[in-house]
Design goal:
With 253 residues, the chain is α+β, with helices and mostly antiparallel strands. Helix content is 37%, strand content 11%. The structure holds iron/sulfur cluster (SF4) (2 copies). One iron/sulfur cluster (SF4) binds next to helix 9. One iron/sulfur cluster binds next to helix 9.
């Protein structure tokens, strides 16, 4: 509406249109910051006025609240991320909000510099968090599906302690070579093909590819119990390829 009505607004914003604010993933926001954006603003339809049964604007709100706490954890000012809800007919409101956000971000200064964080340090911190996005979304999936009704609920939704714990207790998965029976169940179920293995070959998790979904942990038959959950200590190195073959006892009488 702002464009159709020829309303003027800050030239410093770059508009990216999506079908629904619920499409804005945590990855999109953190990627924008990694690419040097100083602020991210999300405009969504008014809550409870969603055109879809999914009510994606609630998802967008939850993601923003989570991301703002992650930003605090990274020592970035969470005011650099904002979400507002308005109807498509509220062009004047849109321009006012965008101009206000643009002004605020200018006052905060360039991302990182404004907070006194070294550029390279910030880049590597953002890269580390982005790698953990699937894990974060799995761990917080129940909370992210909540529908928050008022400011009070927004404020207490994610706490700083909770986010510090989230990063302090990151879980990794490791297959115990002494227990793996090469049944291939975990390999077939892994959603990102992070498990290497074959028939009669001890399976190994590629930690670079693993998104920490825990599927292999759940899938490994209890009689083998070969997948370990590890937190707070280093993951053992993978067993060398030449030692992965399982020699089974023959059934000869
Ligand atoms: S935790 Fe998930 S992603 Fe990682 S190896 Fe297991 S199944 Fe694959
Ligand atoms: S499911 Fe368990 S026993 Fe089977 S291949 Fe995977 S880790 Fe090994």
């Amino acid at each position: 509406m702002a464009g159709v009505s020829r309303l003027q607004y800050s030239t410093e914003i770059r508009l990216i249109r999506v079908m629904c604010s619920g499409r804005v993933d945590l990855e999109f926001i953190l990627r924008a910051f990694s690419n040097g954006m100083d602020g991210v603003f999300i405009g969504g339809c008014r809550l409870n006025e969603c055109n879809y049964i999914t009510h994606g604007n609630y998802d967008a709100l939850s993601i923003v609240l989570l991301c703002r706490k992650i930003m605090e954890h990274l020592e970035l000012n969470p005011e650099r991320l904002s979400i507002e809800f308005m109807s498509s007919g509220e062009g004047i409101l849109f321009t006012e909000i965008v101009d206000g956000f643009s002004k605020k971000v200018k006052e905060l200064g360039p991302l990182g510099k404004g907070e006194g964080i070294d550029e390279n340090e910030l880049k590597s911190k953002l890269a580390e968090v982005r790698e953990l996005i699937p894990y974060i979304k799995i761990v917080k999936r129940k909370k992210l599906a909540s529908r928050l009704e008022n400011q009070e609920e927004y404020d207490g939704f994610f706490t700083s302690d909770e986010i510090d714990r989230l990063f302090g207790e990151v879980v990794s998965y490791h297959i115990d070579p002494a227990k793996c029976q090469a049944c291939m169940i975990c390999l077939r179920k892994c959603p990102v093909e992070a498990i290497a293995g074959a028939k009669n070959q001890i399976h190994v998790i590629d930690q670079e590819k693993c998104i920490k979904c825990g599927t292999c942990f759940e899938a490994c038959p209890p009689r083998f119990d070969a997948v370990n959950k590890i937190s707070g200590e280093p993951v053992p190195p993978p067993i060398p390829e030449e030692e992965r073959t399982i020699v089974r006892k023959s059934r000869t009488k």
